[in-house]
Amino acid sequence: MDKNVLRDKSFAFALRAIKLSKYLQTTHKEYVLSKQIMRSGTSIGALIREAQYAQSKADFLHKLSIALKEANETEYWLLLLVESDYIDKKMFDSILPDIKELLKLLISSTKTIKAYK
Fold first, then answer.
1. What CATH topology corresponds to 5-115?
2. pTM value?
3. Which of 34, 44, 50, 61 is the most buried (most CB within 10 A)?
């Protein structure tokens, strides 16, 4: 498979979201926030994969824009998890740069696509 930074980083992040969700369920018996972080954290990569086979440039932009919204939502859930003490600061500081990087990549990608519309 060819090298695609956005696809690869979003897949790696999805794996982290799944592991975090499992951790929350087994360690804290927390099922609501754990499902939210899993849903939004894994949908980023799924949308990026969908965009690879978009029917048009507009469809491609639409899929990446939704992925950006999901990444922003995921950051929100992570902030809630750390502020509510479900995850400690060390865990939060470990995963935060990953979602921040995805946000930057998605913002940059959507801006570039819009510039060439």
1. de novo design (two linked rop proteins) (1.20.1440)
2. 0.94
3. 44
